[in-house]
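User: Can you help me understand a structure? I only have the sequence.
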Amino acid sequence: MRQWLLKVVILLSLFIFLQAFEDIHQTTSLEQQSIHFTDDDSDGYDADDQCPNVAGNSTNDRLGCLDTDGDGYSDEDEFWNLSDGADAFPLHSGAWSDLDGDGYADQPNLLITDDCPTRYGKSRQVLYGCLDMDLDWIPDVIDTDIDGDGISNELELASSNALFQYNPMDPNSYPVDSDYDMIPDAVDDDDDNDGWPDLVEQDRGTDPLDSQNTPFNNFRGITTGVFYYGGFEFGSEYDAEAIELSLSGLLEVVTEELIIPLLLIPVYFYFFYSRRRLFEQLKKDIDICPGHNKLNELEKKINRYIEDRKIKTHHGLILRNRIEERENDIRGSAEE
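Assistant: Let's start by predicting it. Here is the structure, written out as tokens:
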């Protein structure tokens, strides 16, 4: 009986000891858990706080980190950069990512929205964040001078030929422009920009690339001519419509028309005014021409007149320009 009571006492003591040990262990575990889940920065995040020492409000890329604009994406710091998902626009609540890194946002309908979000670009006129080779803020897709060399894309292509091909996307590839008027010599009627067409200067023996050398000063630099514009108006500015009174013009007539004897000056005036009348008649014919076929016939006729010296070279230029204007008028009427 005594042994049985002793066993009961031992078992009871062992039970009490084990119960006490379990209570102590649970208390320690709870204390450890309490320490582990402490929110030291008081931002509402404890175990999941990725910036435990900084009170933050970010929720998307990281929890509990600084988010200045409150859009849910944390500000960039030394441990978290844009490639990790940090806010590319920390002061703009509507923007947070910039895939191509050009400073324009991927998010739509903003003043800083990237119109070309997958390609780096710095354009800021009409389209934002698109390719802009010459950095003039105009996107290449609508830039009339993509490479910024001063010559338009259209004129660079128009100046190209079998020997020289100019690239409108290469600033080091551009045609010659002697007078720097942004019109290449290949398509410029006046390469030296002195007011006299190249064809006229070549015809009179002056240099079409020298603005100081014109048909009026080709004789020892002395001015030997004037234009009569009508009424009481005279001047030295070239005008194909005006009457030229000059030594150069007289010599041209003498040499071109083979009227060597000066006594035949009346004949000169006859040729002069007959060519003038023919010129005026051709202008009228162009203005009333009904279609492209007739204009083509007129152009061929004008070319023959120039070759036969029945009209002056510069008059031929005027008539060709007039044909182009008439073609545009006919084309515009057809489209309407």
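Now, to help you interpret it: The mean pLDDT is 83. The beta strands are 124-125, 127-128, 225-230, 233-235, 243-246. Let me know which part you'd like to focus on.
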